Amino acid sequence: QVQLVESGGGLVQAGGSLRLSCVASGRTFGGYHMGWFRQAPGKEREFVAGITVRDGTTYQADSVKGRFAISRDNTKNTVYLQMNSLKPDDTAVYYCAARWGVPATKAAHFGSWGQGTQVTVSS
Questions:
Q1: Which band of pLDDT confidence, cut at 50, 70 and 90, is reported for residue 75?
Q2: HEC profile for 33-90?
């Protein structure tokens, strides 16, 4: 298992930006596919973005394409989520997740999770 710790959440006005960070420790970071998910009150946890750590291939949910970007720094065991042009609908707790093996977009396929960081976008 890998341990994950997120940071960088906060309160921002609509149209603003935030960068979330997720630091991993434990097993070899380079073997994990990483993802960001979010969960708003009363809603299911949803996929936001993913990155294949070995070759850096990225993909995002349609709702965030063109606004959010995921990246990683293997030397720091860290994955980032750059969020631009934020909207009130982006308000949620954001979670970092790790999966050993092939990429995935379903929360049930990820075995390691961070504690989450709150992002609140005011209108």
A1: confident
A2: EEEEEEECCCCCCEEEEEEECCCCCEEECCCCCCCEEEEEEHHHCEEEEEECCCCHHH
